Amino acid sequence: MAKINSKNLVCKTLTGFEKSLGFVPPQVSVLAYHSISNNKSIVDIDLKTFQKQIDFLKKNFQFVNIDEVFEYVEGKREFVHPVVAITFDDGYKTVFENAFPILEKNNIPASIFVLSDPKHADRNSLENNNPFMTVAQIKKLHSKGWAVGCHSATHPEFADPNLDFKREIFNAKKTLESSLAVKMNFYVYPKGVYSEKIIDQVKKAKFKGAFSFQAGDVSKSSNHFAIPRIPVDWTHSQEQFEAFFTNWGLKYLQTKKITEGRYL
Ligand SMILES: [Zn+2]
Fold first, then answer.
1. Is the pLDDT of residue 15 over 90?
2. Kind and range of the H or E element at 179?
């Protein structure tokens, strides 16, 4: 049973109240996950919690991938029902081993943002030592309909003024495209850190768009290079998770900075 705390209670109340008034909920949401396992690392959500979240999403949404979300932002696609896109950052092996079977069983497409040089990943920046997927595993997910995007070469601190753009944006794209034989259309900034200068480099590298960690619903006025995503982590109760998909719940959680967890 979920811990009763004031945050959960507010979420539950707001969610119920908004529903009873018949407000139109956010129509397009993108969720940002990292790792699904029972290992209890900083990036993990346990399997039981993930399954419960998927059960809720299945009841309320249709699932889309990031290409469809981007077409919507561009004004090239409409959705009849509320939709959600599930994304995973960093490319952890647990996504292949634990999340993939659950999602495949439910026919849910997902998207992953991976590193082009995981062997040299900045483990200080990632704050964990979880193993990454192999190229073969990423290819397998892509063959099953998963979208694959770029999340830098080594996941360095993007706030570093000496950041190597060439390695982390331009070469990362080229390397992934040649090793996976998949076009890299979208970028995710490590830890969600970006600036005008960084966006400019991502544009120059010919990415079509990029996703952020700014929680919010996606709209046709979303910045193509900072499309909102809602970060989900182990600190979220089911009440808080469900509140992400209401206007008032989302606003409330935004004022509470969404979570005490970490965005990597
Ligand atoms: Zn990351």
1. no
2. helix 172-180
